[in-house]
Amino acid sequence: MNTKNNKRFRDMDKKLKATMLELLETTDFEKITVKSICETAHVNRSTFYAHYSDVYEIMEQMEEHLNEELLESYTGSPQEKDSVFPMWPFIPFLRHIKKHACFYRTALKQRRDFPLKQGYEPMWNQIIKPKCIAAGITSESEMLYYFVYFQAGFTMVLRRWVDTGCHESEEVVARIIENCIPAIWNTIQ
């Protein structure tokens, strides 16, 4: 019986995702097919279709998995937070993006919004909202405009970073991002 709780099913799911990541390192996403995934993983197409309906679904589920991994990374130690504050909220995010750069290179190509559906909470709660409140902005509606602006810029900075091979350190990119939000930072400083 093939269910998501079955260990063999879960192991095959991991294998298919690993194969997808392997292919993303050498092949443009648009050229990856179910057939190429199956051939590389040495599995039948029926096995793939027991898990996913197409290559878009596997990417979507990989993004959800990586999102969970990212959220877990925000449990950094207080020493780490103090050592790079106020950049600290960016550092775990950037480390995560760098670790999975081949996936995000593809995921960010067509993005205009934040790369992870739930990955924004730490940045909203630890950066945008406190900075807006400190600047005297109390309307959450107005804060959301700052955040939308921040999301678009942040996403494009990430895209450039992964497109150029993540050569700059996470700290350098965090500083660049921090300096890119002068409307909030300059009001407070």
Structural account:
- The chain is an all-alpha fold and 189 residues long.
- It folds into two domains: 7-52, Arc Repressor Mutant, subunit A (Orthogonal Bundle), CATH 1.10.10.60; 76-188, no CATH class.
- Helix content is 70%, strand content 0%.
- It has helices spanning 7-26, 34-41, 45-51, 55-72, 78-84, 90-99, 101-107, 121-134, 140-163, 170-179, 182-188.
- α1 (7-26) crosses α2 (34-41), α6 crosses α10 and α8 (121-134) crosses α9.
- The longest helix is centred in the C-terminal third of the chain and has 24 residues, at 140-163.
- The radius of gyration is 19 Å and the shape is elongated.
- The relative contact order is 0.10.
Rg over CA atoms: 19 Å
CA distance, first residue to last residue: 61 Å
Q: How many strands in all?
A: 0
> In percent terms, what proportion of residues is strand?
under 5%
Mean pLDDT: 80
The number of helical runs is 11
Q: Helix amount, in percent?
A: 55-70%
List the secondary-structure elements in sequence, H or E. Answer: HHHHHHHHHHH
Overall structural class, as computed from helix and strand content, comes to mainly alpha
Q: Which parts are unreliable, with pLDDT below 50 for 5 consecutive residues or more?
A: 77-85
Number of domains: 2
Biggest beta sheet attributes: none
User: What is the 3D form?
Assistant: elongated
